[in-house]
Specification:
By secondary structure, the chain is α/β, with parallel strands linked by helices. The chain has one domain: Ribonuclease Z/Hydroxyacylglutathione hydrolase-like (Metallo-beta-lactamase, Chain A). Helices cover about 30% and strands about 25% of the residues. The chain has eight helices and 15 strands. A seven-stranded mixed β-sheet has the order 1-2-3-4-5-6-7, covered by helices on one side. A hairpin with a 4-residue loop joins strand 10 (about 125-130) and strand 11. The two termini are about 35 Å apart. The relative contact order is 0.13. The structure holds zinc ion and fe (iii) ion (FE). Fe (iii) ion (FE) binds near residues 63, 65, 66, 139 and 176.
């Protein structure tokens, strides 16, 4: 499955496990990347089919469903560089390029900005492709929901949301899981009169019925429809999280 995305960055979906997505990235200038290979075999299979060898492997956080394929990919493609959060490098099999907030990476001729988004895990990191206008958010931000707060504080998670809200509205959102349809009910419960949300849910149902990914979304769409992108304080996030936990 391939999404045209912005023409500068071609993004292909690789479904792994039950509802994770790994991604394969290609630029016009020939840089090849993989994002979040939770499982190596389906990623290698897709890369082989496409005749591609990755230059970079981006990891958003250390959880097994995002990082367990790293060692096998690296042994299959020894020249690929593994890019991962500095503070999680001990928890990931191989890290060649440990990264921190606001670091700029070169992906071929394109620029990738590292956005530290602690909360789901302390090292959770998003990768923003400036020319491709795409952000890979792992388990920090999903379409119509967000990741669980496993390690950070509500204040950290809220400030991570603020960083993502600051990206241009047209930024394409590629997250780590296909959770959109399952998240629609809670959003609608919290925000029952939101016509943008209702329209998005119809679109999501249609995509799911056709067996297609509900992604990419955009930052602008999430700001209009995702209740976690519509908060104004860490206190509001704390309350919404409680409400979701008891939903
Ligand atoms: Zn996770
Ligand atoms: Fe996950």
């Amino acid at each position: 499955m391939t999404s045209a995305a912005a023409s500068l960055l071609k993004v292909s979906f690789v479904p792994v496990y039950r509802d994770n997505y790994a991604y394969i990235l290609q630029t016009k200038c020939g840089a090849i990347g993989v994002v979040d290979p939770g499982e190596a075999e389906p990623v290698i299979h897709t890369l082989d089919d496409m005749g591609l060898v990755p230059d970079y492997i981006f990891v958003t956080h250390y959880h097994w469903d995002h990082a367990d394929g790293v060692a096998e990919l690296k042994s299959y493609y020894p020249s690929a560089k593994v890019i991962a959060p500095d503070i999680e490098k001990q928890k990931i099999d191989i890290v060649d390029v440990p990264v921190r907030h606001n670091q700029i990476l070169a992906f071929g001729k394109q620029r990738v900005r590292v956005i530290a988004t602690p909360g789901h895990t302390l090292g959770s990191t998003c990768y923003y492709f400036e020319e491709g206008k795409a952000v890979f958010t792992g388990d920090t931000l999903f379409s119509l929901s967000c990741g669980g707060l496993f390690e950070g504080t509500p204040e950290q998670m809220y400030s991570s949301f603020e960083k993502l809200k600051a990206l241009p509205d047209e930024t394409l959102l590629y997250c780590g899981h296909e959770y959109t349809r399952a998240s629609a009910g809670f959003c609608l419960r919290v925000d029952p009169n939101n016509s943008d949300l209702k329209a998005r849910i119809e679109q999501v149902k249609d995509l799911c019925n056709k067996g297609l990914p509900t992604l990419p979304s955009t930052i602008g769409m999430e700001k209009k429809t995702n209740v976690f992108m519509r908060l104004n304080s860490a206190k509001e996030y704390r309350e919404l999280r409680q409400r979701k936990l008891s939903y």
